[in-house]
Amino acid sequence: MGGATGNLLAAILKRFDALNGVLFDRPHVVCDAPALLGSHGVAERVRIESGDFFEGVPKGGEAYLLSHIIHDWNEAQCLGILNQCRKAMSANGRLLIVEMVSPDGDTPHPGKIMDMTMLVVPGGQERTETEYAELTRKAGFRLNRVVPTESAVSVLECLPV
To answer: What is the CATH number of domain 58-160?
Structure first.
C-alpha cells in the first residue's frame, strides 16, 4: 500500500525469485510503475492496482507492507488504513510496517527529531514500540516482533488476532 512506483517492491522481488507482488497506490502515482518495474526485470511478477487505502486495499495478500506510511497520519487515519488492511487479509496474513521506532525515555534517536517534523508538517508522528503495539491492537493486530535494520528504521511484524 502506498507503493509509489514500485522501487521497494522491485528490490524485494529481485531478492526473492519465488514471490509475486501487488503494487497499490493512487492512480497518478502508479502510472509510472511499469517502466520502473520493467527496468528491474520484475514487471511480469507484479499486478498494479490503483485506489485509496482509506477506502480499501487489494484482498487476499499473504503480506501487506506499509513503508513510511503510518507516520504520515494522525491516529484516526492510521486506524483507517490498518483496518482496511485487516479486512483484506486472511487469518494467517502478515502486516509489515517499516518505520522508525523511537526508544522510550530520553535516549537520543533520529525519530525524535522526525516526530516534531511529522507533527508540524503532515500531522503525523513517530512512535515507540509500545505506541505501535497499542495502535495496531486497536486495528485487530498483535505486534509480534520488531526487527531492527542497519538504518534508522525497523520492520514491525503484526499478526491478525
So the answer is: 3.40.50.150
**CA-CA distance, 123 to 105, in Å (whole number)?**
22
Strands 153-160 and 94-102, sheet pairing: antiparallel
Over residues 41-81, the pLDDT tens digits come to: 999 999 999 999 999 999 999 999 999 999 989 999 999 99
Give CA–CA dist 41/32, Å, rounded.
15
Residues with pLDDT less than 50, the chain: none
Candidates 28, 40, 68, 71; catalytic one: 71
Q: Residues with Cβ < 8 Å from 83, sequence gap 6 or more?
A: 139, 140
What does the chain come to in residues?
161
Round to whole Å and give the CA distance between 104 and 129. Answer: 8
Give the per-residue pLDDT at 134.
98
Residues of the chain with CATH 3.40.50.150: 58-160
Task: Provide the 10 A C-beta neighbour count for residue 131.
Answer: 15
139: exposed, middle or buried (C-beta count within 10 Å: 0-12, 13-18, 19+)? Answer: buried
Q: Is 71 a catalytic residue?
A: yes
